[in-house]
From TrEMBL:
Family that this chain belongs to: Belongs to the COA3 family.
Xref: PANTHER family: CYTOCHROME C OXIDASE ASSEMBLY FACTOR 3 HOMOLOG, MITOCHONDRIAL (PTHR15642:SF3), CYTOCHROME C OXIDASE ASSEMBLY FACTOR 3, MITOCHONDRIAL (PTHR15642)
Membrane disposition: Single-pass membrane protein
Annotated source species: Vanessa tameamea
Chain's role: Required for assembly of cytochrome c oxidase (complex IV).
Any single biological process term in GO: mitochondrial respiratory chain complex IV assembly
Keyword entries, A-Z: Membrane, Mitochondrion, Mitochondrion inner membrane, Transmembrane, Transmembrane helix
Keyword Mitochondrion in record: yes
Listed transmembrane segments: 50-70
Assembly and binders: Component of 250-400 kDa complexes called cytochrome oxidase assembly intermediates or COA complexes.
Pfam families tied to this protein: Coa3_cc
Domain Cytochrome c oxidase assembly factor 3 mitochondrial coiled-coil, first and last residues per copy: 34-82
Name the record gives this protein: Cytochrome c oxidase assembly factor 3
Length: 87
């Protein structure tokens, strides 16, 4: 329905644009810089994951230690009143 209108708005000369060698070299430099940036971001992300896991493991170990330490306490187990000694 509207396909014929789209084709009429696009004007092409029938030739592909020709890039100069300087433009191609510049594109290669930009691509290389982008690859380096992505590699740095991936390394940072990997280090962040390791740091998060280490912090999580530390928190979990402190939590488990505190749970085990509370289980070993016996002074709260005796809820009966002490027997009065009569003399």
């Amino acid at each position: 329905m509207g396909d014929s209108n789209l084709n009429s708005k696009v004007k092409t000369s029938g030739q592909d644009p020709v890039l100069k060698q300087a433009e191609i070299d510049y594109m290669k430099i930009i691509e290389q810089k982008n690859r380096e940036r992505v590699q740095k971001l991936q390394q940072i992300s990997k280090k962040n994951r390791y740091t998060g896991l280490a912090i999580g493991a530390g928190v979990f170990s402190i939590y488990m230690y505190s749970i085990l330490a509370v289980k070993q306490e016996t002074f709260l187990d005796d809820f009966e009143e002490p027997v009065k000694v009569q003399q």
